Amino acid sequence: MAPIFDTAFCRLVGIPLPIVQAPIGGMAVPELVAAVSNAGGLGMLSVTWDEPDELDAKLARVQALTDRPFGVNMVLVWPMEERLRRCLDAGVRIVSTTWGDPTHLASVAHEAGATVLHTVSDVAEARRAVDAGVDVIVAQGWEAGGHVRGEVATMALVPAVVDAVAAIPVVAAGGIGDGRGVAAALMLGASAAWLGTRFVMSVEAPALQPYRDRMVAADATSTVYSSMFDGGWPDAPHRTLRNSTTDNWEAAGRPPPGQRPGEGETIGSWSDGEPIPRYGSDAPRLGASGDVEAMSMYAGQSVGLIDDVRPAGEIVRQLADEAATALKAGGGFVLP
User: Fold this and answer.
1) Shortest CA distance to 99 belongs to which of 237, 211, 207?
2) Which residue, 95, 153, 275, 324, has most beta carbons within 10 Å?
3) Cα dihedral across residues 35, 38, 41, 45: positive or negative
């Protein structure tokens, strides 16, 4: 039986375990989201790029698979109010925002009784988000995989944000790959941990096998922080696994868009025939084919801690057990 954690975030959103599955784009399918929530964590559905009918179907699918709390995530680079209202109308009451000013969406969400999380990369941004009315701060260190705005490491960022926002719950993100990392986040003052790379390596996530194989073989030095996979989302820094595309770009001196090796090439396609360009921002998942190795394989530095693919529910329970063990053992370091 998994332990139960009593933290401000757990109480606020109604979950027993301080574990949040990051909204990992197209990898955050309803089956993954529901599995995490059913195990006692908080599953998060990425809805930024969903068309209305697709969004409605995804929400209905999650709700058919779980009666536990789950959330939705929206990237504020694009207009999100219509998507937010559809989610609220469907009964979603946990909303996560990132990459922009959450003031208006937080107000709309609060009118419906929803809790709002906002991801930040430094203390100043955290203070602005609190002033904007959000309920929870997600402090994301630059070790994180996927799109990452800041350059402050998690160990330095989280306690600084905790101190800056006082009574507002903080969720720690970036570089957390096992239960020891969850325990460390709690010791830094966070109320929960936010994990993405670990859940890409879940049975439910639709990552293609070559992507998974490279993650299993990777260590913490196998990632690169850049803005190179910018097709569809320009000027957005991110962390990915090193591959032939990153190697050739670095060998060429990291040239800017328009001057990069192989730019304009098609390296694969989706099942509907849509081409996948080199430097495209979509990770290789079911429905993609072609030169998978050359695509954008998002991964954080925690990838070196992950060497298997497991069901998401099992991952949640393992994280909780490891965190509880680490926290209990921590009392033995100080002599009376």
Assistant:
1) 237
2) 95
3) positive
Residue type, 196: G
Please tell me the distance from the alpha carbon of residue 59 to that of residue 70, in angstroms, as a whole number: 10
- The pTM of this model reads 0.96
C-alpha distances out from residue 35 to 5, 79, 196, 299, 313, Å? 19, 29, 14, 21, 5
> Tens digit of pLDDT for each residue in 216-231?
999 999 999 999 999 9
Longest CA pairwise span in the chain (Å): 67
Alpha helices by DSSP H, listed for 46-191, are 52-65, 81-89, 103-111, 123-131, 154-165, 179-187
Q: How far apart are CA 138 and CA 158, in angstroms?
A: 9
Helices 103-111 and 81-89, packing angle to 10 deg: 20
Looking at the predicted structure, is the pLDDT value of residue 186 above 70?
yes
Query: What domains lie within the chain, and their CATH numbers?
Result: 8-204+306-332 (3.20.20.70), 223-298 (no CATH)
Question: pLDDT, tens digit, for every residue of 276-299?
Answer: 999 999 999 999 999 999 999 999
Which ranges in the chain belong to alpha helices (H)? 8-13, 30-38, 52-65, 81-89, 103-111, 123-131, 154-165, 179-187, 197-200, 209-217, 244-251, 312-329
**Quick one: CA dihedral 90, 95, 98, 102, positive or negative?**
positive
What is residue 325's three-state secondary structure? helix
Considering only CA atoms, give the Rg of the chain: 19
Q: In what order do the strands lie in the sheet with 136-140?
A: 19-21, 192-195, 170-173, 136-140, 115-120, 94-98, 70-75, 43-46
Provide the β-strand partners of residue 72: 45, 95
